[in-house]
Amino acid sequence: MKALLRQGVVGTLLLVALIFIVPIHSQSQEASRRRLVSQSAPPYPALARSMALQGIVKVDALVAADGSVKTVDIKGGHPVLAQAAVNTVRRWRWEPASRESHEVVEVKFSPE
Q1: Best label site of 35, 37, 67, 105, fewest CB within 10 Å?
Q2: Phi and psi dihedrals of 15, rounded to 5?
Q3: pTM
Q4: Domain CATH number, residue 88
Q5: One domain for residues 11 and 55
Q6: How many domains does the chain contain in total?
Q7: pLDDT 10s per residue in the chain (112 long)?
């Protein structure tokens, strides 16, 4: 009986802990909205031009506290356009902040 009661108490404590931990964790994973201070247009890849490709590449940039880009992860878009988007976003700068953040951006490509 004591073992059953102890399991119930432990289960209840775990449930309470999850209720408080999960929302905090999910908030820290959300992308922030820091202001871009330096942005350049992406070069249109020659292969994409010959294929008449256009579209959007979605990337997640890990931005350091000083506003520089630490890493860029591709989240979607045509593979022919993806590397040009990554190279472009690596050169961008955001406003400084107290800590690093994830910035999700869409890089648009068109042959014009």
Answers
A1: 35
A2: -65, -45
A3: 0.70
A4: 3.30.2420.10
A5: no
A6: 2
A7: 655 545 554 444 333 333 333 333 333 344 568 999 999 999 999 999 999 999 999 999 999 999 999 999 999 999 999 999 999 999 999 999 999 999 999 999 988 7
